[in-house]
Amino acid sequence: MLRLFFALQPNAGQNAALVEQVAPLVSRLEAQRVPAENLHATLCFVGAVSGEKLALLKSVAAGIRGWQATLRFDTLEFWQKPKVLCATAGDDPAAAPARTLAERLAAAVVDAGFAPDIKPFRAHVTLARKVDAGRALECEWPRALAPPLHVHCKRFMLMRSDRGESGSTYSVVDSWPLYADDTD
To answer: Which candidate, 22, 106, 124, 167, has a CA 20 to 30 Å from the CA of 38?
Structure first.
C-alpha cells in the first residue's frame, strides 16, 4: 500500500532558506527538524492506496482544473497536540485558489471511491516534530515569521510518504499545472 497525499510545495531554495531561518528556534525547542526536501502544504491526505488504484487517483487529479495561488507564510505556531512547529499562511485573497483546489480534490477523491482524511484547508508547513512542550510553553505564540515566505504555486503534486528509521520521507509521484486565469 502507498501512503499518498496531494500538496503544494515551496521550491528547493525556499525550503532551504526556511529551514535555516527557523533553525535556532527548532534547536531551542529541542525538536526534530523536518528536512528541507520534505516541506509541503497538504491539500488532501488520501491515505493508503493500493498500487492498482494509483492510475485512478492520477486520472482524478488530471481532471481537476485549479488556479495558481500565492501562499504568504508569515506566522510560526506551536500546535500542542501533535507537538509540531508550523509556518502558517494567513487567509489572504491570493491564497483562495489553494483552498478551492483542496475542496475540489477532496470531493473528486471521495467521488472516485477513496476515503481521504478530509479537513478544512489551512495552509501550513510543518517545520519540526517532537517539540518539547515545556520548552514551547516558555515561548510566546503565535510569533512572526520575518521575513515572510511567499510561495507562488504553479503546480500541485501527488506525493508519497515512506516511513523509515529516521522518520518519513516524501517524494513526488506526479504533478499537474495550475492555471494563471480562466483563459489558460
So the answer is: 106
Distances (CA, A) of 59 to 10, 43, 54, 102, 171: 24, 17, 9, 16, 19
Q: Is residue 119 part of a domain?
A: yes
20 within domain boundaries: yes
Q: Does residue 153 surpass a pLDDT of 60?
A: yes
Q: How far apart are CA 120 and CA 6, in angstroms?
A: 14
With respect to residue 184, please indicate whether it lies within any of the assigned structural domains: no
CA nearest 10: which of 168, 179, 163, 157? 157
**135 in a structural domain:** yes
Interval 47-92: pLDDT, tens: 999 999 999 999 999 999 999 999 999 999 999 999 999 999 988 8
Are 39 and 141 spatial neighbours (Cβ–Cβ below 8 Å)? Answer: no
